[in-house]
Structure formats: structure tokens, C-alpha cells
Amino acid sequence: MSRILPADGIEFEFTVPVVVIGGGAAGMVAALAAHERGAGVLVLERDALPQGSTALSAGLIPAPGTRWQRDAGIEDSPERFAADIIAKAKGEPDPLEVARVAQVVGPALEWLADRYGLPFSVVDNFSYPGHSARRMHGLPSRSGAELIDRLRGAVETAGIDVLCEAHVTALHADGAQIRGVEITRPDSSVERVGCGALILACNGYGGNRALVERHVPELADALYFGHTGNQGDALLWGEALGAATRHLSGHQGHGSVAHPAGILVTWATITEGGVQVNAEGRRFSNEAQGYSEQAAVVLRQPDGIAWTVFDERIAAIARQFEDFRQAEAMGAVLSAGTPAELARLMKIDANALAATLADIDRLKAEGGTDGFGRDFAGSAPLVPPYRAVRVTGALFHTQGGLVVDDEARVLDGQGTPLSNLYAAGGAACGVSGSKASGYLSGNGLLTAVALGRIAGMAAASAVSEETSQ
């Protein structure tokens, strides 16, 4: 249970200038940034190994105007990226916050590469829905597991303390001033650590079924594909301290999680010309709108199941992602030389699937738009051998959260910063608005990296100023 306790009369075992709650991408980036500014930093992680939702993601971070884009001949800019974010979310996000993260994220990736050796490259062989330029950056395996492993390695090499199996169960405060945290260990023992500044990097509330039912009822019974530790602690603490919140119904879903394997299947399977059919062998939506909003659409199909159908050409593109290679290794990706054979393996009506694929071939040949509004102009036909994956819709993480300013300080209802409290990543309100359809691919790691760096630098500067006074 997340609690706010008084700080009066509390003796802390020790005090650290900057405490970071959460060892995912946001927390690790914040720790590196604060340490680089000369602050003492302690990262508190509830698990035995820092991973968080980052490890479950594809590890892709959208960033404009990077050197990797320039090397690939990709023209892009923060302004163009910001416009894409605003357009996808129908104008809901705060334009100042959008501009801020769009400006910061590119330099942050180059900083992580130059200072800490993270070997980023740009995904230049397919586009994500809503992005007007190819700006997704990832590490060689294109996996979130590699991203968090390398960030954790950078933190360890920098000599930053990371305390694992340290579940923060309460904050100690004088009014809205955070004085320290209470940590509960696996053996139920309790420790108290004081701090000069506190950075909330413990994501949102996706793992808290009651909060999901309240704010995202359409996904209340969906598979949760995030980290179970995302219990909404930051949100609950912030609300108890009088913090402002925004877009709490905003979230990232995904309409292509292999079932029952539980492996993310890259949306390149759709954007490169694949389709989704239900158990009746028929298409049911414009799949190309975006994977986030597709989660609820898939869940409305019989048994909450769909099939993503594509071909070997698309599979070859998908194999750059570790998750897809794992799905193939587990046998989750079916392969067949004809639609009839594929339907037999899928255990669905062969005539219906054949008719669906024939209709897609016709639309692609004509460059037509279907009844759902999907434009197939310029899309390559599906050719044997065909591929199919049984998938379901899932909730990945929430996008609403605490409102922060341009230094990632948490604001109260009147827009005044809470003096020493910061938020980054899923703990802060993101840039996706209030709906799943507002999520632009990569928005989660965008605010993890951008706001993480902003929060770390700002918190270090604040405690330095406090010390010098």
C-alpha cells in the first residue's frame, strides 16, 4: 500500500542527495544524469534485478535529427516529430511538453551512445504508424532486455548504488516536502532513507487491476503485458500530496501479442502489408491505424483472439527483432505454402481465409482502399510461403499520470511545483492524450529517456543549490 507518512521524529538510517524509485529505463537514465551532475544517487528497485516494463518492450526509442538518421539519409526534425505526436493524439497533449521531449530525446540518445557506449542504430527498413519519418532507434537485438541490461551496466560502471529487493512502501514528508522513503524488504524488515530530492520512475498503474477498471474499463480483463510492479504508486503518492494529474485513461495497448506464447509480435507484420483475421477467417478492422488502439478491437473478436497473417518477405523484416525470433523458435509462427494449408493449421474456415486473402490481393493490385478505410496503395502482395500468428490484445502500460513542468518537477493543482519531487516515464503524464489511439509508437520510452534525463539533471542541480546555500 502506498502511503504518505509524517517526517517529524523519523530517524533515517542514512541520507542521499537524490533517490530514484524504479530501475527501468527512466530510473537508470535519471540516475546517470544526476550522477553526471555531481549528485550522490541511490536507485531503489523492488525486484531482485532491475528490469521493469523496459525489458518487456522492443526497446525502440523515437528520436528526430540524430546522427544515425543523417547517416541513413533520413530527414527529420524535432518540430516534425512534435507535429506527428500532436496529430496522433488529436491535439490533446500539452504542446509545450511535446516540444520539450521532442527536442531532448535525440541529444539524450547521442549522450548515451557517446558517454556510455550504447550502440544505437535507426530502424530504416520499415515505418511505424503515425511517424512521418523513420526515427525509431534501438540496440542490435532490437529488444528491451538489451536496453535495460546496457543501462544497468552503465549505472554499475559509473559506481551508482542500486539497492534491489527494496520495495518503497511509504514516503515521509513535511507537507509536500519529501524528506525520505520507507523501504520494506522481502523479510518484512523496514529501513528508512532520507533524501534531498526524489525522482518517481516507477511507471504507471497497469498492474493495479482496480485502477485499470476505474480508468481504462475496456481493458479491465485484458492480458497485462507490463511489469506486475506497476501498481500506481507514483500516482497514489502524488494524489495524496495534492499533485495534478492528467489523461489518466491514456494507455498503450497492443493488438499483436502471440497467444498463448505471450510474446510481442512486431507491428511490421501489419505495416509491411499483413492483415488480421478473426476465428471466422474474416478481417474486422483497419489494422494499419495503430497497434495501441487495435488491442481493444482484437479483444472484441470471438474469444478475444485474432490471427496476424503475412508472408516470408515480411517475416524476414520481423526477424531483426529478438521477440519475433523467439516466437518462431517456440513454434508460434505457422508456415504454409497455400491459403488452404494455412487455414488448416490455424483451424479456421479455408474458404473464408482464401476469400479474404484474394480480396487483399485485389486491393493491393488496384491500389484501393477497403471498407474499413485502409489504403493498400503501394503495398506488396502476400506471396507463398504464408505465415500466421495467433494473437490477442493486451495492455502494455498507462500513459496518464502526474503533471510535470519543464524540469520534470511534479506540479500541484494550481501549477506550482512540489519543491523536491520529480517524475519521469510512466509516472508522469505522457504525450498520448486520453485514448489508446493517441499513442504514437515509442511514446513510452520517449518520455522515459527524455524526462528521465531532464529529471536527473534538475534534481542534481536543485540539491547542489540547496547544499551551497
Automatic annotation (TrEMBL):
Residue ranges occupied by any FAD-dependent oxidoreductase 2 FAD-binding domain in the UniProt entry: 18-434
Pfam families to which the protein is assigned, alphabetical: FAD_binding_2
Keywords: FAD, Flavoprotein, Oxidoreductase
Residues annotated as signal peptide: none
Essential cofactor(s): FAD
InterPro entries xrefs: FAD-dep_OxRdtase_2_FAD-bd, FAD-oxidoreductase_2, FAD/NAD-bd_sf, Succ_DH/fumarate_Rdtase_cat_sf
Protein name: FAD-dependent oxidoreductase
